[in-house]
Amino acid sequence: xxxxxxxxxxxxxxxxxSCVTISPETFQLNEENKALVYDHGQQPDGPTYERWxxxxxxxxxxxxxxxxxxxxxxxxxxxxxxNQLFPEL
Amino acid sequence: xxxVIIGGGxxxxxxxxxxxxxxxxxxxxxxxxxxxxxxxxxxLPHYLKGKIPRERVFxxxxxxxxxxxxxxxxxVMATSLNAKNKFVTLxxxxxxxxxxxxxxxxxxxxxxxxxxxxxxYLRTLDDADHLLQLLGERTGTSPAAVYGGGFIACEYxxxxxxxxxPTRVGLRGSYFWSRVLEHEAGALIQKxxxxxxxxxxxxxxxxxxxxxxxxxxxxxxxxxGIGIQPDFSWMREAGLEVESGIKCDAFLKTNxxxxxxxxxxxEFYDVIVGRHVHVGNWMNxxxxxxxxxxxxxxxxxxxxxxxxxxxxILGLEIIFIGDVSKQEADEVKLFGSAEEGxxxxxxGRKGQLVGAVLIGRNQDxxxxxxxxxxxxxxxxxxx
Lengths: 89, 383
Description:
heterodimer; A: alpha+beta; 4-stranded antiparallel sheet; 2 helices; 19% helix; 27% strand; globular; B: 5-stranded parallel sheet; 5-stranded parallel sheet
């Protein structure tokens, strides 16, 4: 089960909400219209723009699709070793 | 299978990417008018404000197309379509045969006829580069002008404010989005502009902004944002049904066999709101790109998405969700007020909530999106 770090750059996020449409278990907008990161629909330790989570391969693919859909490339995904999976460098 | 995609924007490229996933052996050709690999138009404002470097606007590298075994033709447009013999003719004279054709040409800007120095448009990366050039050439403290009262006008206002350029805005109506918004919603935006010292000139026409030789009011730059006006001539000649966009059904199929449309150019049957709609936003274009690829591969699932577009004017958040046509609505209901700093304008048809504009009311977004998706009644929305 891959362990990943998902991060939203709140300065780049404009609330386009495509990530929320594709990956609602991982992304939800807050009242500032910025995407918070959820762990399977939950917010252990409260709201945050960045968190570690364990996901299945299918879930990872969906989260990557959500990140890829962001028109401002505000979502960053890292693997356990710290390698940036998206956006590709 | 030969797939030809006319248009190299987010709808066309997303469709190509999905087609490649679904059919590893297909021939795929993208015909793109622009020379740049896919980039995000939504990132252009960030680029213009120096928040990101220019290279960060690109979503695909130039090498991506070859990696996906996709032919990528740049600087080329389609000029005619022969749907009977299934080929398109391109501006470079080439004829491309297809088994399935996707038209995803987006929208062309409505322009003003005058070709004056300092006139700016804002749709492409080249437009953004040009605007930065104009800003660099600006002398002294000359103000900038904006003509139009929609999404592009917001971007110009934010851009000029960021660079501390005094701005005056000429509106064709009496307030922003005057054909969509009720007066109270317009008043809230007006209040925001007044607070920030942006000068608004309501009910003007182009001749109030320019004369034969120059931009009026001593302005050195005029940002024009007066909507889009695609050229449908070759599509109409081919027999495609066109109204405000290319008419297609819920599967994004047009009236011609094996011809599909997606993105800003498509006027599609929206199963959620129950009528043909013409939507011009990123989320819709991208999701339709993915969806139409499935349709082209024979998977017939209706496209069903409540899309939205979010922007802001000098920090005041504005969100359009779903079907916000006032003419097509039989009920328009307001919540909040300009005085409170937040207005939600809801659109209903036959009792059903079909769309909303939220100004300074982000907190309503999730619930309203869910209600539209669920075809819930407007009356069930409580502030």
